[in-house]
Amino acid sequence: MRLKVNFFNRDTVIVAKELLGKYLCRKIGNKVVRVKITETEAYCGIKDKACHASKGLTPRTKIMFGHPGYAYVYMIYGMYYCLNLVTREAGCPEAVLIRGGEKLNGLRRGGEAALRGPGKLCLELKIDKKLNGMDIFKSKELWIENGEKVKPSQIKKGKRIGIDYAGKWKDKLWRFWVNPFK
User: Fold this and answer.
1) How many CB atoms lie within 10 A of CB 95?
2) What integer pLDDT is reported at residue 109 of this predicted model?
3) Residues of the domain holding 101
4) How far is CA 48 from CA 56, 95, 170, in A?
5) What is the predicted pLDDT for the residue at 166?
6) Name one GO biological process term (predicted).
C-alpha cells in the first residue's frame, strides 16, 4: 500500500527515521522494481545550512517549498542524481534524502554496493531530473509503499555526509540507517 500525504506532512527527522524499511518503488519499462530503504538524511529548512532551501526560493529549490510527497531530484558533482522526498506543509522547505537501499527484486546488477550512496541508488533505479517534481502519490513511475517494520532500537544515527561547509549544522545527527544485511 502506498504511503499517504499525512506520512510526509510531519517533522522531517521523524519521517527520515520512519522511511527506513519502507519500499521505494520505481517502474522501469514494464517492470516494478522495489528497494527497501536502509539509509536516509533529514534536511530541515531555511535555517539548516546543509539544506538547499537555506539559499531561499530558487528555480532549483521551488519543489521543496511546495507540498509534501513530491520528488526533489538534483545533480551532484555534475554526474550523479539524488532523490529527496519533500516533507512538511507548503512553504516549509524540508526534505529527506534517500541515501541507500537493499534490493528486493528486479535489479540487474549484483551486490548491495550498487545501492549504497544516493548517486548509485539513483543510477541503478534510473532516477534523473525527469522525475523532479513528481507527485509520488499519483505517479505510475515512482512511489513509496509501506514495507517492513523497523524497531527504534535497530536504527543507528550519525552526522550527515558531505556537508562540512554547513557550520554547526554539520554536527546534527540527522543521518539514519539500518543494517541491510541479516
Assistant:
1) 30
2) 55
3) 5-175
4) 11, 11, 9
5) 94
6) base-excision repair
